[in-house]
Amino acid sequence: MKVLEYILKKLEKERLHMTLIDPDKQPAEDAGKLAENACKLGTDAIMVGGSTGVTQKKMDDTIISMKNKVKIPVIIFPTSASAISAYADAIYFMSLLNSKSPVFLVRQQMIAAPYIKKVGIEPIPMGYIVIEPGMKVGEIGMAEPVPRDKIDMAVGYALAAEFFGMKLIYLEAGSGAPEPVPDTMVSAVKSEISIPLIVGGGIRNAGAAENAIRSGADIVVTGTIVEESEDLENSLGKIIEAVKS
Ligand code: 1GP
C-alpha cells in the first residue's frame, strides 16, 4: 500500500500522530531506537527532517536505522533537494506557500523531482504554511509567516493549495514554537478545506494535542518533545493517547 493511501485509510477511522525526528540531533542508531519507541507508543508514521545540518549521509544512515526497527512509514520532511534519501518510503513533496523566495516555492522541488522519480520514493504533494512565529524553518525558508490573527490568510493559502491539487495541508508554527498554531486558525482552515489537515510546532503536552484535534487537526506532529523527554511514555505516550481519544 502506498503511504498516502495508508494515511487516508487510517484517517477514515481515527486521527493520526506523526513523530518528527531530526537526523542532525542524534546518532543514527539512537534515531532508530527513538522511532521504535514512538512506534510502540502508537505513532502512525515517522517524519525525518530538520532545518539545519542535515546531510545526505545523516539522512541515509538515520532512515536505514529506522527501517530496520519499524514497520510504519518513514517519510522525508525535506528542507532542500540536497538531502533526500532513497531508503525512505515517501517524501512530503511540499511547497512553502508563504515563502518570499521561489527557491522554496518550486526551485528546490524542480531539482529534487527527477531524483525522486529515478529512485522511486513516493511523493506526497503538500501545501506547507508557516504561521507566526515560524521559528527556524520560517527564517531559513524565507517565509512571511502568517500573523496569528490573520485567519483569512491561512484559509486562503490552504484553499489555494487544495485547488492546486495538493493532497495535504500543513499548518506549521515552527519547531519549538512557544505556542502552537491558534485553535481558531485550525478550525477555520479545517472548515474550508476538504483534504486532511496537519498541525505542528509547539505541541508539547496532551492538552495542546487535544486542542489541535478538537479544533479540527487530522494529523498532529510532535518533534521537540521526543528529543527532550526522558520519559517518552509519559510525554509522547500521553500526546498520542490524546490524539487517539
Ligand atoms: C516542526 O511541526 C514540527 O516542523 C514539530 O514541532 O518540534 O515543536 O514539536 P515541535
What does this structure look like?
With 245 residues, this protein is α/β, with parallel strands linked by helices. The chain is built from 10 helices and 8 strands. It has one domain: TIM Barrel. Strand 2, helix 3 and strand 3 form a beta-alpha-beta unit. Helix 2 crosses helix 3, helix 7 packs parallel to helix 8 and helix 8 packs parallel to helix 10. It is globular. The site of SN-glycerol-1-phosphate (1GP) has 14 residues, from strand 8 and helix 9.
Ligands: SN-glycerol-1-phosphate
Name of the CATH class: Alpha Beta
Structural class: alpha/beta
Distance between the termini: 26 Å
Topology:
Blueprint: H1 3-11, E1 16-21, H2 28-40, E2 45-48, H3 56-69, E3 74-76, E4 90-96, H4 102-119, E5 122-130, H5 135-140, H6 151-164, E6 168-172, H7 183-192, E7 197-200, H8 206-215, E8 219-222, H9 224-228, H10 236-244
Parallel strand pairs: 1-2, 1-8, 2-3, 3-4, 4-5, 5-6, 6-7, 7-8
This protein binds SN-glycerol-1-phosphate.
Residues 20, 172, 175-177, 200-203, 221-225 line the site of SN-glycerol-1-phosphate.
